[in-house]
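SEVERITY: medium
COMPONENT: batch folding queue
REPORTER: lab tech (J.R.)

DESCRIPTION
The queue accepted two submissions in a row. Attaching both inputs and their returned structure tokens so the on-call engineer can compare them side by side.

ATTACHMENT 1
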Amino acid sequence: MMAVCLRYSRNRMEAEDILQDAFIRVFDHIGDFEFKGSLEGWIRRIVVNTALQQYRQLSRREEEQGLDEVEAFALEPSIYAHLHEKELLNLIAQLPDGYRMVFNLHAIEGYSHREISEWLGIEESTSRSQLVKARKLLQAKILDMQKIAV
């Protein structure tokens, strides 16, 4: 579960706080587990919800990064082949908070834009927009890494 916390946090210390808060909630509500799904899935949901709650508490500000001028690049599959999981997770961790949350929830966790909009208190269109901007920013970072490696 620490890996989940790291994806939603800005640093390791924040991730540890999320994990601790999440497991306190797990222990407080273990009696509510209905054995209808996997225990891991139930715990994961609590961890994600805890991370989102902390995000909402810590950052009520709007994120404006001005990425509209960043063009969407079609990356060659060979560029992705050189990326290791740890490098990709590091790039995701560098995204602005809002972009990182939406990217993690949609691309990694598989939630819909409707669910994301409800959890984060944003419009569905904002969720879609932040996902597009997160992808563009990741593409630009990957291209920069590729240029440095060549």
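ATTACHMENT 2
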Amino acid sequence: MKKHPPNTISAVIIAKNEEVRIHECLSSLKWADEIIVVDNNSTDRTTEIARTFGATVISSNATDFSVLRTQGLQAAKGVWILYVDADEVVTKELELEILDLLQGWSRAVDSTCYFISRKNYYFGVQRPVGDKMQRLFYKPAFVRWSGSLHETAIVYGSYGSLRHELHHDTHRNLEEMVAKTNTWSDEEARLRLISGHPTIAPWRFLRVFVTGFIRSHIKEFGWMAGTHGWIESMYQGFSMVMTYIKLWELQKKS
């Protein structure tokens, strides 16, 4: 792969059964010095496709996202680590911005961690509001990942933000959405149980549905996306109800 001295870049991807989308993700990372795919028990052609791009594939059984990201970090040889999810694409503008930043980067004056904005697409339609994620790190300043599901990076030094975005193609169809919710809600419910969440009362199911719907539809301007926005907002409420039903089941077992 092409070198960009003085700072080498390792791209780290966590993937599970992403044969449909990982090709586009990997194609957008050809400029990186190294690509590492942490495969989480895929049963499709994810690893085969990754190897055709020259990626180093690490197999992992971990369910903790901090562990998965750390495994990729430990295997990386680059001075800089760029985390990209398998359903994301690095735009050409973002690629050039990162390379330009690192060419003139100095630890004495610049940040050691950078947030990257995302344009999120649901059912192929862009959501009105995006988000920002910690994605680019100076490896010598990296401390650790914290959190099993909604993981956060702890880094020595200051934080900065890049101007250009990742394209995030999530929630492409209902089947995929339900499968993802079924997986994530298990861990969400477990974390709430461990934290000592109060015993679930029936009214709470309605409350969390309304909370999820309002956040997505009003606060995140889902209403501006028309029918797609209504579907996504209702689904966000449903996802929260699923988590609390599973929490209720765990509380009964306890």
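NOTES FROM REPORTER
The first helix runs from residue 22 to 27.
No errors were logged for either attachment.
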